[in-house]
Target: Iron complex outermembrane receptor protein
Amino acid sequence: MNKYILSIKLILILCLSLQAQTSDIQIKVITEAENEPLMGATVYFEALEKGAVTNFDGIAEFTEIPDGEHQIVISFLGFETLETTIQIPSNIELVFKLKEGGNELDAVVLQSTRSTRTVRKIPTRIEFIGAEELGEKAIMNPTNISMVLRESTGIQMQQTSLSSGSTNIRIQGLDGRYTQLLRDGFPLYGGFSSGLSILQIPPLDLQQFEIIKGSSSTLYGGGAIAGLVNMVSKTPDEEPALDIMLTQTQALGSTANIFYSKRDEKFGFSLYGSGYYQKAYDPEDDGFSNLPKTTSISFNPKLFYYPSDKTTLWFGLNGTYDDRIGGDITKIEDGENGIHQYIEENNSKRLSSQFVYETQLDSVSALQFKNSVSFFDRNLTVPDFNFDGQQTNTFTEISYNTASEKTDWIIGANLYTSNFDENDNAQLQRDQKDVTFGAFANNIYDISDNWILETGLRADYNTDFGFFPLPRISLLYKNNSGFSSRIGGGLGYKIPDIFTEEAEYINFENVLAIDKSTVDAERSYGLNFDVNYQTRLTDEIGFSVNQLFYVTAINNGLLLNSTNNGLFQFENATDEIFSKGAETNIKFTYKDFRWFLNYAFIDTKLNYLPGNPQKPLTAKHNAGSVVMYESEKWRIGYETYYTGKQFLSNGTETTDFVTMGLLVMRNFKLGSVFVNFENFTDRRQSRFSPLVLPPHENPVFPEIYAPTDGFIFSVGLIIKPFGNEDDD
Model:
């Protein structure tokens, strides 16, 4: 009898052990059209309430999945959701294909192109920076977006002032005024804010960046000669989200960011606030600040209303108070004393509103109306000179989108106004008003499965500078073997104003107003060509390469020339500014490792000067390497960037240099902790040449061609109490 009881017990134990068997599995998701790995797709086990997101190789990994039959759901924005059943364990590789969701309006929308198509089906070349990479750059620099842009191939962040830190973006060697900065499709930055714009946009509430290089004036009008950068904000989901980031640097800089969002059936909202304090920082002890004393506060509330599934209205505000004091450390900390007299103070206030109404008219058509009003007040003070003024910009647009099986259309019209009003006490009155009306049409047409054509035409009319026709064309070829190529070009223009890098370098002192009777608008033409290839070298090693070639020429370039009486006036160049070059981007992936390599060749010639010299402060050769390790718990990144030799305005050749950075982050269920070593080899301009020249009481500041702040060490904490995926 005991033998039978023992046998029954053994059988029961065996059954229980068999029932408890589990497996570690990988599920791969690829696109149906190109058989390419789909990063960011969600794989969800319904009964287990367990999910994961695919990595760069399109693989979602799961541990301890019970053996047996399971129902899974695979989804990705812009693709049809797949529901299927799998058997665990499986004798076959678990690979699933997702089909693109056609022209449904809830598919991926790139605001910079306003298309409902995914990136791979748009002839315009777009560089997309998603939430994950933005998160990494926010850790490296939580105060502003300069880090995001600086580390993109072919983009240079040109500092124009040591004392205030003013910085302009340069794409492909062209000045910052030729790049249009957008937020959610609104042109809110530039003009009087100029070199402060980049410094006053914190990154934590941004969802993605869209960068288009080359003329992009068809959809957004004047100013996008070198390209455009569109920053897309986070929007609320039904699940509330709360992000808190606290950062401290060894250079005595403290930053706090907080973002909260939530929505229900009819209403949603998001709240964002940022505070930054930096003590004046002088790493080489020369008595002058390399980082100004800064107090900066930003807020950005938004309210969303969803009257139906087809209609959305939202209203937002952006507000910033920013005060920067740089110069003589003794003067900043203790007040004027003997030769300690020089300071530069930038006090600015920004307030802008955005309103958007968008409705889906039917399954393939939509209507959108949007309006923004932007106010910027800046007071720039240096010894014996003050520049004080306000600029108000407005932007209003209505557009209509429609799509069919093979073609997408967008047509629209807009009105842009700009009004700069200098303080009435100023000796030189540089007031300027501009009004521009525009109408545009853009078409994307599928010639075949492999060829897609995009054409566009904008017609702008400025009340002072006249009519600007802006045609544009792009052609895409793609196949199912991982190869694609794009070629495109168009025209652009820029309405002249006094806010150039040259004028900002001298603090706008003695700069005469634009004489609209003698100065013409700048005009441009450009051409881009690129090829892309993506494949798998082995089952575990992925490889992709993108090679870009470009040409941009600017006629009537705006120059700031001196006069006989010590003043400066704007004139048009007698010949072209001609920029040509190439960009190479290579990516390798292996399991949790990613390796990015990039190289930019930038050859920007000033053909209006004898000998057609290279544009000052523009390195011909730039290269970078980024190695990333990312797992569920760790994120480690090591960066190396090379900047080649440059020329100063006087023809002097500078030295080349290499900077390095290291990021280490540990993830937890409710947040992360991180340390960042930025420029840890401490490359800064003062190691190559002086940043400040005597006399001490009235110093001369040479042009800036290298980092000025040197090594920055930061530690931080990210808190996410909710709004996270389950940490399985």
In short: The domain at 21-98 is CATH 2.60.40.1120 (Immunoglobulin-like). The longest helix spans residues 2-19. Residues 10-19, 102-108 have pLDDT under 50 and may be disordered.
